[in-house]
Amino acid sequence: MSPTPIRIIGIDPGLRNLGWGIVESVGSRLMFVACGSVHSDAKAPLAERLRQLHYGLAQVISMHAPLEAAVEATFVNRDPQGALKLGQARGVAMVVPALAGVSVSEYAANVIKKTVVGAGHAEKQQVATMVKLLLPKSDARTPDAADALAVVSSNRNADEAIANPQTHSGASLPPGSGGFDRSRRQRDSNSLLSASESGRKVGGG
After folding, report:
1. Which has fewest Cβ within 10 Å: 20, 74, 101, 187?
2. Distances (CA, A) of 120 to 2, 64, 128
3. Which of 61, 1, 73, 71 is nearest to 33 (CA)?
4. Residue 123's closest CA among 84, 150, 141, 89?
C-alpha cells in the first residue's frame, strides 16, 4: 500500500519579502510542488504591509492546501525597531496557516541550517545548493524562496531521520545532514530560543 502524501509549506518570514515553499512528503521522499515570495510595498504604512503579506500568504495556502506548516523562528536583536517589524511579519506567517486549520511548527535558523547543510552557521549559498540537491526540480528564484524550502526540508529531514537517515528525495546525503533526531532538534531549538530571550543575537533572516 502506497504511503499517503503529506503536503507541507515552509515559510521564511520577512516584512519586505516573505518566502514560501511547498513540498509533498511521500514516505522517505520529498517532491517539490511550488515556491515563491509574497511582497509588501515598502512605501505603505506598516498595517497595510502586514495586510498585503496576510492576503498573499492566505492565497498561497488556499491554492496549495498544505496540511502542515514550518516557520523559521528568527530573532535579530541589534536593531530593536527592525526586530519588532520582523516579529510582526513572523506573526502573520504563523497566524495565516493557523486560521486555515494547518498545524504550525517553528524551527530556529541555526537548527534549519544544521539539519539541511550540516553546519549551524552555513552561508545562504550553501543552504540554496543543498536545497537544490534535496529537491532537484525546485526553481527558487529568490533567496527567500530557497530559505523557505530549507525550512520545510529541515522539517521532513528531522522527522524521517530515524526511519531512513541516508536517503532523501532519491539523493544520498552528506555526513551531518541526515540522522538529526527529533529530540536533539528540539533541545537545540529550545536552547537557541532561550538564548534569544536573554538578549543575545541568535540568527538572521
Report:
1. 101
2. 35, 30, 14
3. 61
4. 150
Catalytic site residues?
A: 12, 72, 144
- Name the strand (E) or helix (H) holding 158: helix 143-160
pLDDT on residue 120? 62
Write the pLDDT tens digit of every residue in 124-167. Answer: 777 788 888 888 899 898 899 999 999 988 776 445 532 343 43
- Between CA 147 and CA 128 the distance in angstroms is 7
Q: Is the pTM of this model over 0.85?
A: no
CA distance 19 to 26: 23
Distance between CA atoms of 123 and 85, rounded to whole angstroms?
A: 24
Q: The cell 552557521 sits on which residue?
A: 121
Amino acid at position 192, single letter: L
Q: Please calculate the CA angle 92-85-189 and round it to the nearest 5 degrees.
A: 70
C-alpha cell at 21: 515553499
Mean pLDDT of all residues in 75-85 = 77
Q: What is the mean pLDDT of residues 27-31?
A: 81
Q: Is the pLDDT of residue 71 over 90?
A: yes
The Cα diameter of the chain in Å comes to 53
pLDDT at 160: 52
CA dihedral sign of residues 188, 192, 198, 201: positive
What is d(CA 166, CA 160) in angstroms, rounded to the nearest whole number? 10
pLDDT digits (tens, 9 = 90+) for 106-129: 988 877 887 777 766 777 777 788
